[in-house]
Structures are given as C-alpha cells and as structure tokens.
C-alpha cells in the first residue's frame, strides 16, 4: 500500500467530525453497511483510521479509487473550502462534453504541463453538477513527497454552462487547471469573474440563474436531497403566517406597515429559499 493512500485516509478522517465519518465512507460506495459497521467507527479517530486502512488493504484499492473518496468528502463538506467562479471566453466553446470525456481531456492536458510528478483525475456527479478532482503529486528524486490536500483542485460545472467553480488551492495548481480546462473546452480563456465564497450552493445558484439555465434554487434543492449533512432549515425563509388565537386581541400600531413589507418581499422573491452567501468577495477596478 502506498503512503499516499494512507495519508489521504488519515487526512479525511482528521477533517471529518466524528459524527460524519461513517456516512462519508458509506457514500464513497466501496464498502457496504455490514463492512462499515458501528464497531469500525467506535473509539478515537486513530483507531478508526487503523480499521479503515485494514479494509482498504484487504480490498487492494489503488490511489485512483482512494481519490474518489476525497471527491466524495468534498461534495459532502464543500463549506470546508473557499470557491471561486470562472467563466469561459470564446466563440466556439465545447460545453456539452460527456463528463468522462471532460475529465479525460483535462487530465491529459494537466499531465502535459505538470512536470513535478503524477496527476490523478477523478469525476463524479452530485446535485446536478459535474465534479472533478485533480490532484498533482510531487516527486523529488525517487521519492514522492507527502500528500497535501491543498494540492487537489476541485472543479464544479454544469452541462451546457460556461461557468466553472474551482476550489482555492496553490496558485500554480489553479493556473494549470484553468489552462487545462481552457484547452479542453476550446475556449480562449477562463476568466475570474470576481465572485467567491464558502457557500458553494449559493455560488452555483447565482451563476446558473444568471446564465438563464435553471431556476435559481435547483442546485440547493438537489444538494439537500443528496447530502445528509446539509442544514435544511437554515437557508429557508418562511412564508408569512397569519396571527391566530389570543394574538388577535393585541393592537399593533405598525401592523399595516409590517403587512406591506411582507407582501412586498413575497412579491419580489416569492416564498422559496433564497441564495445565502456568508461572505461575498469582489474587486472593483478603477482606471
């Protein structure tokens, strides 16, 4: 078993909350629920790591398959990363590639430009999006350097969309991935549109709505169905409720103004959940 496999598993267990480790490994799909029983996940994280590593070793899983685990982890824990939105530029874009073809093209282009070691590429579908994980490992002399999760760049895009959302990583890694995507899609460039944040779902909904593709809440609705760790109540604005019971006996001098504001909110935004960004970063250029 390679050191990279051990280090990826160790890193993921360390970054997970104790209550989310089991579900993360189940979503990976390499082991069934009987293999990943409660006994596996009892005890401190160090013991869990040892037991998981034994399962991986017995199943003879390779680095490519372990890369799928890191991709699943990021799909379920996307708020652990900061994300930045890019848009393809050009007049003859290839936007409807099969996800596997897109992965193969990006991986091939990266392998040509990454001179420091080996590139691993993984692809998965989640919440209606195409997810890529591009990990660039480094080799010094005859030895591979220790695994660093910041050497993995995660990419999220949608069929027919010119937008690509990339995770924050090393400058060199991101530059090479954006170049690989540009070549794979026959674009002239991949432009940073100065939109970033930790709330990937809101970034996705904003760009999809702006591109006129789908309703603005589709990504988050699908994410809530597929991700057991999403707080389904925190992002929804409740529809105005009628006062009942004894509350009708209380005179509110501002009731008419409040009702006016409520009706205006519903008219403008409806009663559905709205995109929420904990932080929105943008830059303004002054000439």
From TrEMBL:
Keywords: Centromere, Chromosome, Nucleus. The keyword Magnesium does not apply. Residues 218-258 are annotated as: Disordered. It is found in: Chromosome, Centromere; Nucleus. Its main location: nucleus. Residues 242-257 have a biased composition (Acidic residues). One of its GO terms (biological process) is chromosome segregation. GO terms for cellular component: chromosome, centromeric region; nucleoplasm. InterPro entries: CENP-NAC/CAD_complex, Chl4/mis15/CENP-N. PANTHER family: CENTROMERE PROTEIN N (PTHR46790). Belongs to the CENP-N/CHL4 family. This is Centromere protein N-like isoform X2. It comes from Biomphalaria glabrata (Bloodfluke planorb).
């Amino acid at each position: 078993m390679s050191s990279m496999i051990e280090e990826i598993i160790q890193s993921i267990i360390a970054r997970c909350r104790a209550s989310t480790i089991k579900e993360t490994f189940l979503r990976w799909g390499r082991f069934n629920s009987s293999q990943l029983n409660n006994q596996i996940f009892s005890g401190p994280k160090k013991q869990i790591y040892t037991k998981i590593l034994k399962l991986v070793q017995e199943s003879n899983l390779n680095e490519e398959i372990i890369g799928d685990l890191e991709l699943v982890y990021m799909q379920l824990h996307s708020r652990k990363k900061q994300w930045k939105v890019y848009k393809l530029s050009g007049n003859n874009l290839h936007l409807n590639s099969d996800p596997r073809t897109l992965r193969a093209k990006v991986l091939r282009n990266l392998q040509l430009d990454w001179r420091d070691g080996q590139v691993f590429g993984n692809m998965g579908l989640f919440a209606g999006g195409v997810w890529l994980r591009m990990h660039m490992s480094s080799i010094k002399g005859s030895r591979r350097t220790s695994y660093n999760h910041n050497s993995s760049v995660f990419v999220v895009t949608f069929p027919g969309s010119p937008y690509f959302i990339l995770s924050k990583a090393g400058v060199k890694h991101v530059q090479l991935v954006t170049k690989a995507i540009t070549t794979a899609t026959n674009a002239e460039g991949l432009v940073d549109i100065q939109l970033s944040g930790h709330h990937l779902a809101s970034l996705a909904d904003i760009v999809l709505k702006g591109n006129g593709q789908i309703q603005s809440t589709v990504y988050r609705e699908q994410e809530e169905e597929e991700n057991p760790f999403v707080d389904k109540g925190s992002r929804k604005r409740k529809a105005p409720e009628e006062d009942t019971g004894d509350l009708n006996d209380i005179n509110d001098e501002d009731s008419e103004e409040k009702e006016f504001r409520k009706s205006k909110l519903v008219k403008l935004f409806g009663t559905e959940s709205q995109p929420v960004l904990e932080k929105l970063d943008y830059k303004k250029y002054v000439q």
